[in-house]
Design goal:
The complex is a heterodimer of chains A (about 675) and B (about 100). Chain A is mostly helical and about 675 residues long. Chain A is built from 27 helices and 4 strands. Chain A has a two-stranded antiparallel sheet with strand order 1-2. Chain A has a two-stranded antiparallel ribbon with strand order 3-4. In chain A, helix 3 packs antiparallel against helix 4. With about 100 residues, chain B is an all-alpha fold. Chain B contains 3 helices and no strands. The chains are: A mainly alpha (about 675), B mainly alpha (about 100). At the A-B interface, helix 27 of A face helix 1 of B. Chain B: One of its GO terms (molecular function) is oxidoreductase activity, acting on NAD(P)H.
Chain lengths: ~675, ~100
C-alpha cells in the first residue's frame, strides 16, 4: 500500500539515483557530460523530495509501511513468537528524514563538484564513474529509510560494493585496485559478524523490523522483562551478544579500531568519492545503523560501554596518526576515523541526539573539507603533498575561506558547527563518565583527541594555504570553475550555521528553548512510537553525575574542550604558520616512526593473515584437494575402469550379440527349469 | 484329416533353428536378413497352428501383424544394407566393427 501525499513519492528518493545509474551506464557514452547531467538531476530530485518529506514529518506525520513481502513462513522462534516475514518497507521518522536530506544534499553537491573535478580534467571512464555514484547514492538512501534489519543489511552490503567500485575507479594504477580490495575485505570481515547478528536476531525474536509493535526491539524488551532464557543465555546477555555482532558491521563500515585500516587506503579513489564515502554514505552508514536501532543497544549497558570505549579510543588513536601525515587527503582520512569515534562515543553513552547531531555536522564539514581538498588538488595540478603547497590563501580565496570554515568546524572552535556537536558528545560522555570509570577513560581519550584534532587540522590549513609557495605549481595555480566553487560555498555556509539547530550549552545557560534537534528527534513534531530520544533515554541504564550543578559541569566541559582545541590550533600556528615551515615531526624520533607506520596496524593484520589465516586456508585447501576430491575422483576412477573393461563385450559384430542373446536365453531356461523342477 | 499340432511345432522349431544357425554362422548381411525372415515365419507357423488347435482366430490375426512387421523390418534392413554397401563397398558384417567404440 502506498502512502499519501509526500510519502507516496518516498520510494522515488532512492529510485531516482538508480535510474541515473542505469542511464549513465547504458547511454553515458553518448551524453554531453558523460552521465553527469543524469546524476545531478536525479540527486537534485531526491534532495527536493527529501526536503518535502522533512517538511511533512515536521508537520507531525510519519510513515511506516511495508511495500513488498518477499518471504514469510511459520517458525517457532526462541522468544516464543510464531511466524517470520522478510519484507521491503519504508520507515520515515525524524531521524531518517533528516538523514535523507543530508545524504541527498551531499550526493548532489558531489555530483556538481565532479563536473569540475572529473569532467574538466578529461578523465576516461566517466560513465562508469557516474554510474557508480548513482548506485552508491541509491544504496545509501535505501539503507537510510529501510524499515527492517535485513533490508538494511542488503543495502549496507550494496554500499560496500559501490565503495569498492569507486575506490578502484583508477584501476590501471597499482595502488587503487589493492586499496579497493582492502576496503572490500576489511568491511566484509565486519559484515560477517553483522550477518550473524541479523540471523541471530531473526531466529531469536522472529522479526527484523526496526519499529512498531512487532519490532525486535520491543520483543527484546519483553523478553528481558519476562526473564526469558534465550539460547541458554539470560535474555539481557543474549541481547548484548547479538548487539555486539551487529556492531561488528558498524565497526567495519564506520572504520572503528581495529577495522579502520581500509579507510586511509581508500584515499586512492577520486577525491569526490572520498567526500561521498566519508561524509554521507559508506562510513556514515555504520553510525547511522547504531542510531537506527538505538533502542536495541539501549537495552544492553555492556554493548553501550563497548561502543563508547571503542569510540573514545578510536578518536584518540586516529587523531595521533593524523598528526604526522604529509598527504592532505590522508590527514582528512584520519580525521574522519577520529570524528566517527566521537559519534560512537556519543551514542555509546546514550547521547542519541549528540551522536546524530555530530553525524549531521560532520557530514557537512567533512564533505566541505574533502571537496576543498579536491579543489586544492585541482589547483595544484594533482599534487597532494602538503609540503609542496603553501601560500594558496591569496590565490584561491574562495577555496581558502570555505576550507577554513570546515577546518574550524572540525577542530571544534566556537561558534562553528563542529564545536556544538562535539561539545555535546563530550558533555554526555562526561556526565555518564562521572559514574562509570570505563566511560570516564573513554571521555578522557576523546578529550585528549580534541587537542590533536585542533593541531592536525590547522597544521593542514597552514601548510596548504599559508606561508610562501613551496613549489612551482603552488606559485602558478590552476584556476577552478563555478562547479567547484558553488558546492564549497553551500557547504561552507552549512559548516558555519549547522550548529544552530541544537545550541544545548546556550540553552542551558540562557534558559531559552533552542535545542531544535533534540525536540526534532524527541518526536515533538511527529515520530514513530518508541523511536524517540526520551524512549531511548529511559531505557539506557546509565546514571549521570555532575560536578557541582549541571550548568557548571557543562561549562567546565565546554571550556576544557574549547581550550584544548585552541591549544592545538595555537601549537600548529606557532610551528607551521611561518613563511618557511620545517618538518617538526623529525624531532619526535621513534614515536614518529610508529605514527607514520600507523601503529603497525597493517603489519599485524597482515601477520595474522599470513601466519594464521593462510595456513588454515591451506589446510582446508589440502583437505579439499585430497579427501573430498580424492573421494569423488576414486568413485569416478572406479567407474571409468569398470567401463573400459566392460566395453570390450561390445565387439561390433552382430553375430556375437546374437550368440550372447541365445546363450543368455538358454541359460535363463536352464535356470528356470532347474528351479521349477522340470528336469526331475 | 488334420495334422497333429506337435508336427507343426516341430516344423517351426526346425525353421527357427535354421534361421538361428544362419545368423550365428553367416557373415553376409543379406543372409542375416533371410535368416531373420525364417525365424519370424517359424513364429508365424506356431501362432497359426495353435490358433487352429484352440479353434479361435487370435493367433491368425497376430500372424498377419507379424507379416506386416516383417515387411517393415525388411524395408529398413535393406536400407541399412544399402548404406552399409555404399560406405564399406561390402555387405560383410565383420567389416563395420570399426564403428563400435
Amino acid at each position: 500500500m502506498a502512502g499519501t501525499g509526500a510519502f507516496g513519492y518516498a520510494p522515488a528518493i532512492a529510485l531516482f539515483p538508480l535510474v541515473a545509474f542505469v542511464v549513465a551506464l547504458t547511454f553515458g557514452k553518448y551524453m554531453p557530460k558523460r552521465g553527469a547531467i543524469a546524476g545531478i538531476l536525479a540527486t537534485a530530485g531526491s534532495f527536493l523530495l527529501s526536503l518535502w518529506l522533512l517538511v511533512t514529518v515536521a508537520g507531525g506525520e510519519v510513515y511506516h509501511e511495508t511495500l513488498y513481502e518477499w518471504a514469510a513462513g511459520d517458525v517457532l522462534t526462541e522468544a516464543g513468537s510464531n511466524g517470520i516475514e522478510f519484507t521491503f518497507g519504508l520507515l520515515i521518522d525524524p531521524l531518517s528524514a533528516l538523514m535523507l536530506v543530508i545524504v541527498s544534499l551531499v550526493a548532489f553537491l558531489v555530483h556538481v563538484f565532479s563536473l569540475g573535478y572529473m569532467n574538466a580534467e578529461g578523465e576516461t571512464g566517466l560513465p562508469r564513474y557516474y554510474a557508480g555514484l548513482g548506485l552508491f547514492t541509491f544504496s545509501m538512501l535505501a539503507f537510510v529509510y529501510a524499515d527492517n534489519l535485513l533490508m538494511a543489511f542488503m543495502f549496507f552490503e550494496l554500499v560496500g560494493l559501490c565503495s569498492y567500485l569507486l575506490i578502484g575507479f583508477w584501476f590501471r594504477t597499482r595502488s587503487a585496485p589493492s586499496a579497493a580490495k582492502k576496503a572490500f575485505l576489511v568491511t566484509r570481515f565486519g559484515d560477517y559478524f553483522f550477518l550473524l547478528g541479523v540471523v541471530a536476531i531473526a531466529s531469536t525474536f522472529g522479526t527484523v523490523a526496526f519499529a512498531g509493535e512487532n519490532s525486535f526491539v520491543v520483543a527484546a524488551e519483553t523478553a528481558i522483562e519476562n526473564g526469558q532464557t534465550l539460547f541458554g543465555f539470560d535474555a539481557r546477555t543474549w541481547v548484548t551478544i547479538t548487539a555486539l555482532l551487529v556492531l561488528g558491521g558498524v565497526m567495519g563500515k564506520s572504520a572503528q579500531f581495529p577495522l579502520h585500516t581500509w579507510l586511509p587506503d581508500a584515499m586512492e579513489g577520486p577525491t569526490t568519492v572520498s567526500a561521498l564515502i566519508h561524509a554521507a554514505t559508506m562510513v556514515a552508514a555504520g553510525v547511522y545503523l547504531v542510531a537506527r536501532m538505538f533502542g536495541y543497544y539501549a537495552l544492553s549497558p555492556t554493548a553501550l560501554t563497548v561502543i563508547s570505549f571503542v569510540g573514545g579510543f578510536t578518536a584518540l588513536f586516529a587523531a595521533t596518526m593524523g598528526v604526522v601525515k604529509d598527504d592532505i587527503k590522508q590527514v582528512l582520512a584520519y580525521s574522519t576515523i577520529s570524528q566517527y569515534g566521537y559519534m560512537m562515543l556519543g551514542l555509546g553513552v546514550g547521547g542519541y541526539v549528540a551522536g546524530v547531531f555530530h553525524l549531521m555536522n560532520h557530514a557537512f564539514f567533512k564533505a566541505l573539507l574533502f571537496l576543498g581538498a579536491g579543489a586544492v588538488i585541482v589547483i595544484m595540478h594533482h599534487e597532494q603533498d602538503m609540503w609542496k603547497m603553501g601560500g594558496l590563501k591569496d590565490k584561491a580565496p574562495i577555496t581558502y575561506y570555505t576550507f577554513l570554515a570546515g577546518a574550524l568546524a572540525l577542530a571544534g572552535i566556537i561558534p562553528f558547527s563542529g564545536f556544538w556537536s562535539k561539545d555535546e558528545v563530550l558533555y554526555d560522555a562526561l556526565i555518564v563518565g562521572l559514574e562509570q570509570p570505563v566511560i570516564l577513560v573513554a571521555y578522557a581519550m576523546a578529550l585528549i583527541a580534541v587537542f590533536f584534532t585542533g593541531f592536525y587540522t590547522f597544521r593542514m590549513v597552514f601548510l596548504t594555504f599559508h606561508g610562501e609557495p613551496r613549489s612551482e605549481t603552488a606559485e602558478d595555480p590552476h584556476p577552478v570553475g563555478w562547479s567547484i566553487k558553488a558546492p564549497l560555498i553551500v557547504l561552507g555556509i552549512l559548516a558555519v550555521v549547522a550548529g544552530l539547530v541544537n545550541l544545548a550549552p546556550l540553552a542551558q545557560v540562557l534558559g531559552v528553548d533552542i535545542t531544535f534537534l533534540e525536540h526534532w528527534l524527541d518526536g515533538e513534531f511527529g515520530s514513530v512510537e518508541g523511536l524517540t530520544y526520551h524512549a531511548y533515554h529511559e531505557t539506557v541504564a546509565f546514571d549521570e553525575g555532575a560536578i557541582g550543578s549541571e550548568t557548571v559541569t557543562m561549562l567546565l566541559g565546554a571550556g576544557l574542550s574549547l581550550g584544548l582545541a585552541l591549544a592545538g590550533a595555537l601549537t600548529a600556528h606557532t610551528l607551521y604558520n611561518v613563511p618557511e615551515p620545517v618538518r617538526h615531526k623529525e624531532r619526535l624520533g621513534g614515536v614518529r616512526r610508529t605514527l607514520e607506520a600507523n601503529y603497525y596496524q597493517d603489519e599485524y593484520q597482515v601477520w595474522i593473515a599470513e601466519r594464521f589465516t593462510l595456513p588454515v586456508a591451506r589446510m582446508a585447501d589440502r583437505f579439499d584437494q585430497s579427501v573430498i576430491d580424492g573421494l569423488v575422483n576414486s568413485v569416478s576412477t572406479a567407474s571409468l575402469f569398470g567401463g573400459s573393461r566392460l566395453k570390450r563385450v561390445q565387439t561390433g559384430l552382430v553375430t556375437n550379440y546374437a550368440a550372447l542373446l541365445v546363450a543368455g536365453f538358454i541359460g535363463l531356461l536352464l535356470l528356470l527349469g532347474t528351479l521349477g523342477g522340470w528336469f526331475l | 484329416m488334420a495334422v497333429e499340432v506337435q508336427y507343426y511345432v516341430l516344423l517351426s522349431m526346425a525353421l527357427f533353428s535354421i534361421g538361428l544357425f544362419g545368423i550365428l554362422t553367416r557373415r553376409n548381411a543379406l543372409l542375416f536378413l533371410m535368416s531373420v525372415e525364417l525365424m519370424l515365419n517359424a513364429a508365424n507357423i506356431n501362432l497359426i497352428a495353435f490358433a487352429f488347435y484352440h479353434g479361435n482366430l487370435t493367433g491368425q490375426v497376430f500372424a498377419l501383424f507379424t507379416m506386416a512387421l516383417a515387411a517393415a523390418e525388411v524395408a529398413i534392413g535393406l536400407g541399412i544394407l544399402l548404406v552399409l554397401y555404399r560406405n564399406f563397398r561390402d555387405v560383410d558384417v565383420t567389416v563395420p566393427t570399426t564403428m563400435r567404440w
